[in-house]
Every structure is written in structure tokens, then in C-alpha cells.
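Work package 3, deliverable 3.1, input record:
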Amino acid sequence: MSVQDVAVQKAAPPPTPTLRPRRWVAALQSLVLPLLAIITALIASSVFIIISDTELLALWRDFFAAPSIALTASAEKLRAAYSALLTGGLGDPVRIWEGLRTWLATGDNTAFIASLEGIDRTLVYSTPYIFAGLAVALGFRCGLFNIGAEGQLFVGALASAYIGYSIKGLPMIIHLPLALAAGAAAGAVWSAIAGVLKAYTGAHEVVTTIMLNYVAFRLSDYLLTGPMKRSGFNPVTPPVEPSAWLPKLAPDPLRFHAGFFLALAVAYFVYWFLWKTTWGFEIRTVGANPNAAKYAGMSVARNYIIAMGVSGALAGLAGTNEILGVNHFMAQAFSSGYGFDSIALALLGKSHPLGVVLASLLWGFLRAGATRMQSAAGIPIDIVQIVQGMVIVFVAAPALVRMIWRARFLEEEAETIFTRGWGA
Amino acid sequence: MTPTTFDWTTFRHTHLRRERVLGVVYLLMGLLIWFLFFPSVEPGAQAKFGLNLVTAVKPPPLPDLVVPARGTILLVGLISAFIGGYQLARGFRDPQALMGVVLILFFVAFIVWATAGKSFNLTGMLASTLLRATPIAFGALSGIWCERTAVINIGIEGMMLSAAFTSVVVASAVHSLWWGLVAAMITGGILGFVLAVLAIRFRVDQIIAGTAINIFAVGLTSFLSSSWLSVRQDLNAAGNFKPIPIPVLAKIPIVGPIFFNVNIIIYLMIGLVILTHIVLFYTRWGLRMRAVGEHPKAADTLGINVYFMRYVSVTVGGVIAGLGGAYFTLGSVGRFDEAMTAGKGFIGLAAMIFGKWTPIGGFIASLIFGLADALQVKMAIMSVPIPSEFLLMAPYLVTIIVLSGVVGRAEPPAADGQPYVKE
């Protein structure tokens, strides 16, 4: 983006609520590329599913003797895998229907509720993804690559857990916001370190945030085995007081909680912050062209610090959400790499809050489905990371997707460059 | 930094103040050495440093180095305070360089404090420093090959991890460590080439391409190791390269056991440091690499094929990262564990920056990181009253401090990270 583009953006207000039909076409078209990227990644990961199965591999060795056996066995394996993915992420439609019928007939809703487990898991999993994805997306908008979301998530979780269990007897209306704020603040401080270093010394945020990740992990090791340890054998914190829990919104076997709506609200907040406030405008200008921003009288250093801080606060909220909404205590293994996954989400969502929310829902679905794939079809859950790596590549390289699918209709779009080397 | 004309006002504001700050910092470091380390050492306690390393090759034994703990700490603190005072009063010509000296003094005081009343094998620690520096140095070298032609390689970590995996599997399958090494190089080379294609042909943001390689590598190796290696344990038992003593040189006291009685991968690393230095600064190829990294357009105008240079260099960088990956498995433990590289590739990048994109500098920086790592392990064994988690943070904290340019500002190749579009 050049200076003129930035100026044009300022002059032309962001899209008005009334979308013209042409906008819809454009919006749909912008969905094509991410979708193709996901499809490509899923097809490629099918290959990994097949080669990871030693029995199937043995069949493929005799491919020329009996091709149909290898093919049908592989197809069967993939069918089992992907149907497990679907039922794990959305639920089994037959069970849902049966449950609904029983409920309507007898008034007993336990079967119906149990059948909603898939969709419940998807929503619960996607909540931290939304927070963490927004964190990375906001960084991208300022030209910052925050790989440290995972570490910020850890310190956010530690802080909120501490506030959650150490303060007793507060009413929920004070305790919950306090715990949330503590998590966000801790994440913000942690990432602001990288922001300050970037702003004043030029230390590249990619390396500093990764290093801060390791420091955060060791710090949480220390706190969980020492000062913040609950009495007993396990290195976990004492339970968080119920007054700091994010309220649960679904009956018991389900875990759906208010965090999901909080995440949506925060997504809207990020949209408002980036596109409706002066701070957001400055952040986007610095992201588009730091030199132009400096020339226009904006402080690049200040914006780096602000963007990094807000980004860290969002990542901290991702950790806080897991502590206050799901686990209700902090354990070392509370995060399944949400912070790292969020990079793919921000790219997939084109660093737009709405896109991030959609990508997070998809990711929550994949994660929920993959858990089921592991238990039902014996496919290691790490497959999600393989899909993720490929999605990042395909989303970041539209030319690659165009080449694979021979899709000339996809327009060349201006590809944003985030990298500005190691220096300023 | 663009060269500007000399401006006295700015000079006074930036430099003079900075010099005074540095003087105060050095002075405070001296005081810190006294206050931190002096009181907790018992009067008359002695720090005993062993200089002999028990190995197959026996250099002539040396007597232990014994120093009085309190006296040494006092002396070291005094020197640091003196440097600070002199800096404030008169000023050194290069106050930045003294930061290194002061840090070394602090480090000496720390070791003496930790050793007081105990004994500490100095040669052993230096030997393990080299071992721990090796993967970092490979990472730094890989980074240098890529970035000298202006392609940022943040995927070193992933390349190392993948190569560590394939090397073990191939070496176990064919029962030959050498083929394992070859497999590691091929794996690294392929991933390097993939990065090159993404960065050059498809002009993907280089940091994103590298991150994708990292995530992909972590996912794929974890996936395959939990679906394959957990079933086929026989594919995860490669054994490792044994140290090869170099005849005469291994007998030199201290230096011998550290540098001349190590395994082949470490010799390769040292060889590559020298080779890269020669290639980069004394050959036509190296000149072209640097030209492509500094000003690709000018290089192109002079008939250098920018894309070809970048493809080859980045692939070579991948091969080197692959060797670094093989070190984790074939060079040390002989088996693969999930996420075993533990950020060494990233630390390698920091070492590259610290070493100002030169092979020798990168190697020295790797040794410093290796030292932080080795010391951390030693301190945990010696039960120093610092929680082990904080000691484990040391290498990462040192990386952050180094990157922040405390030890001087580094200049990357001018075109680093920018895709080149031929007109």
C-alpha cells in the first residue's frame, strides 16, 4: 500500500452497512482462495493419513499385484477418518434427531444434550482461537509478526488464575472482570516487552517473542511447581473461585460458556478499534508504510508498543478464557498450542476480525473433529498441525493455489508484505 | 542507517549521554558483583577449578586451579568499578566494547561464587559449551548462507527438526550413521529449496513461509513419531557418532579434549565455519552472494543471475540446517524425540545477528549461547540456590539481551527479506 492508498482509505469511510450486490460477489470471491487452500491442505493431508498407516502401506507395496485392495482400503480409511472428523466436530445427525424426538416425546432432554457434544466442543475450542487469532491479526495490521501469542497466553492464564484463586469472597460482578483484566494486562505487559525492544532497539519481534515464549514456559513451570502450587502431588494451581468463572450457558455434560460471546464482542471491539479510532488508523498506517507514517508525524515506536500491547492483551485473554471458562485451574498442559495456531488463523482470516472469527470456528471444528479422529480412527492429533502448515503456505502463496487449481479467475490481489528485515 | 553529516547537537545528546550511562552501568555492575556475591561466601572459602577432562585420550594432567573465593570476587568487582569510574572521569575510546569485558567479569564472579567451597570442572564445562554451541552454530551458518543473498530463513528450526527425524529413521533402517547424515542433508536441502521456491518464485512473505515450514515440521514429525516410531521402536535407535581424537592435537592440555576429541559432525561444523568464511569473503561466488544480498538490482545489471544465486544459497543453507538437525540425533542422543530442537534454530538466528552476519562472529556468538546453556546445566547439578527454571531461562534471556543490541548494533544485508522482481 502506498501513501495515496492510505489517504484514500481515510477519505473513503469503511463499508457502510448496506452492502451492494457487487460487494457480495467480491466478498464471496475473497472466500474462494481460503477455501481452496483448505481443500488443498486436506487433500494433501490425506496422503499423510495413508502413509502413516503401516498396514495400508503394506497394501500399497503390492499395488501392482492387486490395485483395488490398496485403493479400497485407503478409501475406507479416509472415509472413516473424515466421518469421524465430521461427527466429532458437528455431532452425529442421527443421534441429534433421535435425541430431539425423545425430548419432544418424553420431556427427557439428556440424550439430546449429549448428542450436541460435537458442536459444543467446536464452539468451546474455537473461543481461545478467536482471541489468539485476533491478537496475531492486530499485530499484522501494524506490520508486526507476534509469534509469541503462546507465551502471552501462558502469562495471561497465570495472572488470571492467581487472581481467581487468591481473592476470596468477592461478588462475581467485581471478581470476574478483575480476573479478566489481570489476564489481559499480563499478556499485554509480556508482549509490550517485545514491542519496546522493537521500537527502541530494532530487535526483531519474531525472535524476541519466541524467546519470551520459552521464558514464559519456564516461568510457569516454576510458579506451578513452587509458589502457585496447590497442596498435593500435581503441579497445578488451586481451583479458581466460582465467582471468577465465566458463566456456563449450557447444561452439564456440555461446556459452552460465556467466553464465546465475550470473544465475539472482543472481535467487534478490534474491528471498531482498528477502523473507527485514531489509534487504529495510526496502527494501520504504520503497518502499511512506516516511512509514510513517520512523515505524517506519527510515532512509529509508540504505535509498535501500542499494537504489541493490545495484541498481547488479546492473547492473554485467550489463556484467561481457558482458565476461567473451561479448566477453572491452571495446569502446565492447559494450552494445546493455541498461540501457534493463531498465526494460521490470522492469515486465513486475512487479518480481519470477521475473517478471524470464521477461521477460528473452522479451526475449532477441525480440532474437535481431530480429537475424535484420534479416538475413533487412530489418527494422531498432530495431523491438525500438518493441515495448518499447509494452509499457511497456500494462503500466503495465492500464486501456488492458482497454479494447482489452474484458477485464472482468481484475481491477483496486492499481497501485503509484513517482513521488513531485521532492522527498524 | 544512512550516513548523515556531523551534527554537534545530536552528537551531544546521543553520545555524551550514552557514554555517561555506560560509565554508571559499569560502576553499578562492580557494586552488584560485591553485593550479590561477596556476602554469601564464607570467609576463607576456596573455589577449586578442575582442568582435566576424563576421556579416552589422556593429555598430561594439570593441577587444579584454586583461588580464594572472597578475594577473587572483591578483585573482579574492583576492576569493573574501576572501568566504570574511569569511563565517567576520562572516558574510553570504545566504551561499548568494554561491555563485553564487564560481562565477563560478572560471569567470573558468578562462577567463583557458585564454586566457593566446592570444585568445578572448568574444562568439562568448556567442552560441553562446544557441544551445546554446535547446533546453534549450524543454525547461524544456515542463516548466513540464506541472508547473505537476502532471503530470511526463519524456518531453520523446522529444517533441523525434520532432518533430525529423517536422519534417525534412515540411519536405523539401513544401519549406517553415514546414510543418516546424508538423509539429514537431503531433508534440509529439500526444505531449503521449498523455502527458496516460496520466497523467490511465489514471493511469499519470507517470515510467513519460514513459520509455515516450522509449524509443518513440528506437526509432521510429531505425527509420524506418534503414529510410526511408537510402533516401530527399531526405527528410532540409530546410535551416535563417537568422538574421533585427532592424533597429536588431542594431547594438548585443555584445548585438546575440547576441540580435538569430538565427533564428526562437530568437526564438520568447525570446517564449515572456515569454509563459509573463505567462500563468502575470498571467492567470486561469495562476492556475488553479497552483491545479491546488498543490491540485487545492481548485481542483476552486472549480469549476475539473482534468482539462481538465491536458489543455490538458500538450498545450501537448508543442507547446513539439516546437518545441525542430525547433530541432535546422530551427534548426541541417537534417537528422536518430539520437538527436540527446543528453539536452537531461533537461537542460531540470534547468533547470526550477534555475529553480524559473519561466520566467525556467528561461531563465537554460538559459543556464548552454548556457554549460557552449559552453565545452566552445571549450576543445576551443583545445586546453586537459584530455581532450575530460572537457570533454564538463561539462554533465551541472553538471546533477547543480545538481540536488543546491548553489545552493539548490527547491520543486516541491505536487501534482506525483500523479494526481487526482475524488470
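Chain B touches chain A through 57 residues (CB under 8 Å).
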